[in-house]
Specification:
The protein has ten helices and 15 strands. By secondary structure, it is an alpha/beta fold.
């Protein structure tokens, strides 16, 4: 299919159609598909972003409506499981710990449980300003928000500045989230920049604790950021499939499966 002479407006419509089908798409993919230069595609994507149809990502784009849908669905789904998982995670923290908290709705649930705990003298770093806003109400916590470029609609900071700041520290524990976890492909997420950020967080932490409800298990997203073996401990819920539980058990040091009885305070 030779699309060199396709009108810009027609190409734009097709780009939106492709993004709807794939969720996210790269400049290189679109350039190959339409047989036009990367500069031409970037111009198309800039115009589409200015029109409000898409959001540019590092090296590509996604639908703006996908952000709204992702956020609203994530806020509603699996709240009970996330709260149970969060309660188990808080039990791993000790007074005077220095911890790093990732971004996402699971981390928001974690923060809401943590802020009500009796823990003292915690030093907490995070890239998520919603998480920071929840935790700062506890006077026993010292909160440090690692700032950088803000990803619109997602409430966290990312980019080179954040990564370089993270590399300065050695955290005792990282509480990590993921969009997807698979026994073959490992941990993946939809955004390239976020994947790079998560990979850095994993490497600067002494102990990596993954909080993931079972809806994420068996899924594969766009960009890999860690192997299963990079995780020290997985906390999930009791709806996880037995075959995945067995497979993860062969690669991980420890798995905690949360149940209502195990977290009766929630």
């Amino acid at each position: 299919m030779n699309n060199e002479n396709i009108l810009s407006s027609e190409r734009a419509e097709k780009i939106i159609e492709i993004i709807k089908e794939k969720g996210t798409v790269s400049v290189s993919y679109l350039s190959d598909f339409f047989h036009v230069s990367g500069t031409t595609i970037r111009t198309d994507l800039t115009r589409l972003e200015e029109s409000g149809a898409i959001v540019r990502t590092h090296g590509g784009a996604m639908l703006r409506s996908s952000i709204i849908r992702e956020m609203s669905m994530s806020e509603r789904a699996n709240n009970v499981e996330k709260n149970l998982i969060a309660s188990e995670a808080v039990r791993l923290i000790h007074d005077s710990d220095t911890i790093l908290i990732d971004t996402g709705t699971t981390m928001t649930a974690f923060a809401r449980v943590l802020v009500r705990s009796a823990l003292k003298n915690l030093r907490i770093f995070t890239i998520d300003f919603e998480v920071a806003g929840i935790l700062e109400s506890n006077p026993e916590f010292e909160i440090r928000l690692i700032g950088g470029r803000v990803r619109n609609g997602f409430h966290y900071c990312y980019g080179h500045q954040v990564i370089e700041e993270l590399k300065k520290y050695n955290f005792e524990k990282l509480f990590l989230a993921t969009s997807a976890i698979d026994k073959t492909c490992g941990l993946t997420t939809s955004n390239v920049d976020l994947a790079e950020l998560k990979s850095t967080m994993v490497h600067v932490a002494g102990k990596v604790v993954l909080l993931s409800d079972s809806s994420k298990v068996g899924r594969i997203d766009f960009q890999k950021f860690a192997d299963i073996q990079d995780i020290d401990l997985l906390i999930t819920d009791n709806h996880i499939r037995p075959d995945y539980l067995q497979s993860f058990g062969e690669k991980l040091k420890k798995i905690i499966v949360s149940t209502p009885s195990a977290s009766s305070d929630e």
